[in-house]
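Changelog note: in this version the structure field was regenerated for every chain. One regenerated record is shown below for reference.
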Amino acid sequence: MASDDLFDGLPPPAAAPAGGGTGAASLSPPPPPPPAPAPAPAPKPALKSSLKRTKPSPSADATTSSPSAAAPESHVPEKRLRFRTTVDASETQVIEAMQKIASHIGNTSKFSKASKLASQLIEAGSVKPGTISHFFAILEAAMSSPGACNEPSVRADYHKLFDAAQGVTELFNQQQKNQFDIWVLHAVVANDLFTDDSFVFSKAVGKIKDAISALPVATVDDDNDEAAALAAASKTDSVTDNKTDHSAPAAASNSVADDSTHAAASEPGEESSDPFGLDGLLEHKLKKSERAREKAIAALNRKADEEEAKRFLKSQREALLKCLEIAARRYRIPWTQTAIDIFAKHAYDNVTRFTRQQRDAIVKLWNSIKEQQIRRKQGKSVSGKLDVNAFEYLQEKYSHEKISIRHSVGGGGERRATAWLG
């Protein structure tokens, strides 16, 4: 017989909430849905280089050809051969190299190679305060004969070397700077006068004109020094002069040392009063000797500066006169004649800035150029033609032209020549 219990076989009822009543349990709100996933970023476009086929290596070919190989070999990077273009040399090595260059650069046949090595030292930054004296010795050896720099076979090499050396002039002392300026006139400016470029030629002429204008007026002492130098050169050779020049500073320094150390014994009266030199131990004697030594050194320094200024001025005048002579020898080229005319006239107008012998040479050059001007205008040149340049042609043409009533030139000044102007 079936059981009369209606709830037989059903699960027990759920427990009611603590604060709830007897009714149905309150339902909680459903949980929020999960957020939508972010969209995946777009793939980057493939590079063109990645689409290229890689060059098959020999190992890959062997792998594909032999299927029995276990695994392909790893990619081996290609080897590259690189050469070092600079060498880190020590200061001692640089000095030895400079000394070797200086021993060969005086030879004209070896100058081209030696000058290139010297320029490479400048480009490599090897010319420093510690090596500047040795580099100056290279330039001094190169200019041992100032006329050698104007030979056709080495003109360009001299020009390049001294152009490059102008970048390290701030390391020179004042005496070296003065000497370098003289060398630039010989090796750079004078060589520019041999050019075939009218612009370079005119630029060189302008530099020489500025240098002439900067010269001081020659004095009687300059003329006397020149005459004395010529007289000494006629009696003694250059070797003897060089020896005396080198021995004079040494003798002067020895005399200064003797005066400073034996100031008390310099006068015969003091020798008799103090035969043992005890007065030299006194303080006032020491101060007196120090002041005398300082005065002697200052006097020698002033004398050395004056001699250096005279030597620089003399060398500068000689270099400028040499440039004038080189330009005068190129007067036969038509396109150089106008610039040389102006250059020679400028030197003639400033002839007082040169010494007596140089003044005579400048006057002769100017007279020669003036004579050639007259011959050209008269048609008596070597070629037999009317050899006038463009400036002289236009000067001759417009010197006979007449100005018309309407301020125009043409047709000899007749009214018919200007009627078409309206």
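Spot check on this record: The longest helix spans residues 283-329. The chain has a mean pLDDT of 75.
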